[in-house]
Amino acid sequence: MTWRLADVLDVTAETDRVKTLALDVPGWPGHRAGQHVDVRLTAEDGYQAERSYSIASAPSGTRLELTVECLDDGEVSPYLTDELRTGDKLELRGPVGGYFVWEPSVGGPVLLVGGGSGVVPLMAMIRERAAAASDVDMRLLLSSRSWEGVIYRDELERLEGDGLTVTHTLTRSQPEGWTGYARRIDADMLAAVGPGVGDRPHIYVCGPTPLVEAVATALVGLGHEPSRVKTERFGPTGG
Amino acid sequence: MSFVSRGFRGRRQPEADSARVPPGQYVTTDYPVLSAGPTPHTSLDVWDFSITGEVDEEKGWTWAEFQALPSEEVTVDIHCVTKWSKLDTTWRGVSIDTLLEGVDTAAEHVIQYSDGGYTTNTPLEDVTGGKAWIVYEYDGEPLAPEHGGPARMLLPHLYFWKSAKWIRGLRVQREDEPGFWEQNGYNNYGDPWKEQRYWGD
Hints:
The complex is a heterodimer. Chain A is built from 5 helices and 11 strands, in the order βββββαββαβαβαβαβ. Chain A has helices at residues 77-83, 119-131, 153-159, 187-193, 209-222; strands spanning 4-13, 18-24, 36-42, 48-54, 64-69, 89-96, 110-115, 138-144, 164-170, 202-208, 229-234. In chain A, the strands form 2 sheets. Chain A has a 6-stranded antiparallel beta sheet. Chain A has a 5-stranded parallel beta sheet with strand order 9-8-7-10-11, sandwiched between helices. In chain B, 37% of the residues are buried. By secondary structure, chain B is mostly beta strands. In chain B, 6% of the residues lie in helices and 30% in strands. Chains A and B meet through strand 3, strand 4, strand 6, helix 5 and strand 11 of A and loops of B.
């Protein structure tokens, strides 16, 4: 798979720790919602570092967007969120991954469960659904630490309706008057938010390992078929 | 020719490690978890391990029988296709050479198969000759389910997706057959030193 040199069109803040890079990638072959790219940084002495990042944009978009969370001890993510700016170039290759993908032909119902920046590949699916004017029953359950920390908060609010529901749980702090969930995702929450087992939803779970382990185990416990539960994880070492 | 990322300095590996770290990888001291679906939890009462396929005689072991096989402690470096490498990991398990002792086959390929439906394929010669083990201990402790317990393949010279978690057997075949990730965009062989991550690498 060949490396390509992308032009950085724009860098925008999603939250205080998360930024979206909008890229123009000459020769980009197109992607499916849920796939990722490998990014490679090269220092002047030739030293290189590579990491993978989920694609945030819908396949039909004209720009490729990556949403990156800055990790305090990271090597690559702080460069992408704090150093990179419009007019820079960024080396990447992809798209990668043929399993954790959704497209309108897959159909529904769909349950998306995300933790923090694990929402990124799920957002590509939500955007693809909107772009295709699909009326598939799609439900997002998103765990964030705080209301300010919810990635894509305004866009999710705009897209909600016509078969898309968005449910937040805020695990560390909640705004005054918050009446939504305020705990880690558990079986009761998944049963209340998700389609029933009998509806055989396609389920996508992405987030830090403890969340993915807990959610996937709870879903199987509720009776969902393990083969319908697709997971994508990132550890603290993502960088 | 080469492109430089403006303003990128990077964090170098310690000199001693760099010769042990394949291109595009970085060293972690954590132990990240990666899998495509829920973690299976198979009771040891029903666990067994089989050698099947094109062999003169199929073989199988219960958990108790497997534990009674001669085991080895191995310390190796492992390399995950998602870019992390972990150095000096210590495992205990049974060499594939031990499992294949007395097995006669003309076939040249092997499929690892697991609880949960995962499969991965390699040439048979990549799991023999002291290169691969079915391990059930990590760092002196029973292997945790999220890391592939009760038992997983340890095939350290290839990217770690070639080391199936929750493994239940080896199927020996004449024909190669791409496994789970190999059908989903990942390289059929997966040599980390040649950076064979994806199709076409």
